[in-house]
Amino acid sequence: MRFDIVTIFPEFFGALDVSLLGKARQAGVIEVGLHDLRDFTHDRHRTVDDTPYGGGAGMVMKPEPWGEALDSVVREDSVIVVPSPAGHPFTQREARELSTREHLVFACGRYEGIDQRVIDHYADRNEVREISLGDYVLNGGEVAAMAIIEAVGRLVPGVVGNPASLTEESHEDGLLEYPSYTKPALWRERAVPAVLLSGHHGAVAQWRHEQQLERTRRVRPDLLSPDLLSTDGSGEST
Ligand code: 6GU
């Protein structure tokens, strides 16, 4: 699988050289291309933004550098990911889906966003997904792209050594993960739950499932009853 990233801050992506994804790159399981948007400008100041039509605060990223940059990396089979607080919420389900694709292109916008015509133009030719990490605002798409690349990359076969560790984790079964313990059995007067030392695999599995349910009910009740979720918080479904 290949990731191409267009950004005005290629330095943000140095972390892709290390850890699991770094090893996967060295092994050739995943490929990463980094592209500086400013390399696709033609003025002395390498301008990538301008004031918004209609007025208002902030700057908008100009369409021409984006068009040249994306033309240089987008293929027929590319999915274009635009990290944006205005996108749909990113989930483990979407990470799984994206991990089956051959080529992801990340368009990392800064300021108040990218001229909408860029998104509309590429949406006529490719699958374009505007994706949000959650209901808060980051300064730009770079950190969000890193998070999405890590979530997707670790699901690509061969990136994570033990595939079983992928299925037994938060969100894969719609529940939060159960609490984990390792040695010593007693630490600062806190004992590991006795069932985990019992050797009864059935009892351990049952306890872990109960813990998952309890934790999810307490911290993320919306995961158990998504029907009760609505945009106005009224609990009324549409
Ligand atoms: Cl994907 N981008 C930005 N700029 N802010 C965000 C976000 C993305 N997700 C949550 N906040």
UniProtKB/TrEMBL annotation:
Residues 1-224 form the tRNA methyltransferase TRMD/TRM10-type domain. GO terms for cellular component: cytosol. It is found in: Cytoplasm. The keyword Transmembrane does not apply. CDD domains: TrmD-like. Signal peptide: none annotated. Its EC number is 2.1.1.228. Residues 218-238 are annotated as: Disordered. GO terms for biological process: tRNA N1-guanine methylation. Homodimer. Specifically methylates guanosine-37 in various tRNAs. This is tRNA (guanine-N(1)-)-methyltransferase. It comes from Microcella pacifica.
